[in-house]
Specification:
Glutaredoxin, transmembrane helix, seven-stranded mixed sheet, 190 residues, Thioredoxin-like_sf, alpha/beta, 5 helices, 2 domains
Length: 190
C-alpha cells in the first residue's frame, strides 16, 4: 500500500472513530450503568400535558377565565387549605422569580389557585401581578396536576401545557430562573 492510501486511512480513522464511539456510548449508556443527565432543575413532565380550565374561575368573576394559563409562561401554585407560612413563602418565591427575570418578566405570569375564602385574604397590594383564581377541591382542573401533596410550583407553557414542576420544599431561585431563562431563550412564545 502506498503512503497516500495509508495517510488517508489514518485520517478517516482519526475523524470517524470518535464519532462512532460517541454514538455507540450515547445509545448504550443505560446498559453500561450510566444515567442520562438532565440540565433542568425542575421535574419535567414528559410528554407535556395539555391543561383544561373549564372549571377555573378568576377570583370575584362569575365567568370561566379563558386565558389564565395561555399566551404567557405561567408559574402556578395550588394552595391547599389556609394560606399560611408555607403558602406565603411559595407566593414570595414565584414573585421573586418573576421579578428577577428582568426584561423577560413581561413574558411570565404568576397564578394562585385556591378557594374563595383564602383569596379574600391575599393582599393585592403585596402581590399586584398575581392572578387570583378559584377552583373547587373536586374540580377537574386540580386533578391534572401531579404530586399536589408536596405543593409544588408548576410551570405551564404559552399553549397551556403543563411541562415542569418544582416539588422542592425550598426551591433554589437561581436554578429556577436558569430553567425559565433557558426556556424563554429558545422559545419566542409568550
Amino acid at each position: 500500500m502506498d503512503s497516500g492510501k495509508k495517510s488517508f486511512l489514518w485520517l478517516v480513522t482519526i475523524f470517524v472513530a470518535p464519532i462512532l464511539l460517541g454514538t455507540l456510548l450515547f445509545f448504550n449508556l443505560e446498559r453500561l450503568g450510566f444515567e442520562k443527565g438532565s440540565v433542568n432543575y425542575g421535574n419535567l413532565v414528559q410528554p407535556a400535558q395539555p391543561t383544561k380550565v373549564e372549571d377555573l374561575k378568576q377570583a370575584g368573576a362569575p365567568a370561566v377565565l379563558e386565558d389564565v394559563i395561555t399566551k404567557k409562561w405561567t408559574m402556578l401554585y395550588i394552595e391547599n387549605g389556609k394560606c399560611e407560612e408555607f403558602c406565603q413563602a411559595r407566593l414570595r418565591t414565584i414573585k421573586r422569580v418573576r421579578l428577577l427575570m428582568n426584561e423577560q418578566m413581561r413574558r411570565v405570569r404568576t397564578v394562585l389557585v385556591s378557594s374563595d375564602d383564602v383569596l379574600k385574604s391575599i393582599s393585592s397590594k403585596d402581590n399586584p401581578d398575581l392572578v387570583l383564581t378559584e377552583a373547587m377541591p373536586d374540580s377537574e382542573f386540580l386533578k391534572q396536576f401531579p404530586e399536589q401533596q408536596q405543593e409544588p410550583i408548576y410551570l405551564i407553557d404559552p399553549f397551556g401545557n403543563l411541562m415542569m414542576y418544582y416539588p422542592q420544599e425550598n426551591p433554589d431561585l437561581k436554578k429556577m430562573i436558569k430553567d425559565i431563562r433557558r426556556l424563554l431563550k429558545y422559545s419566542h412564545l409568550g
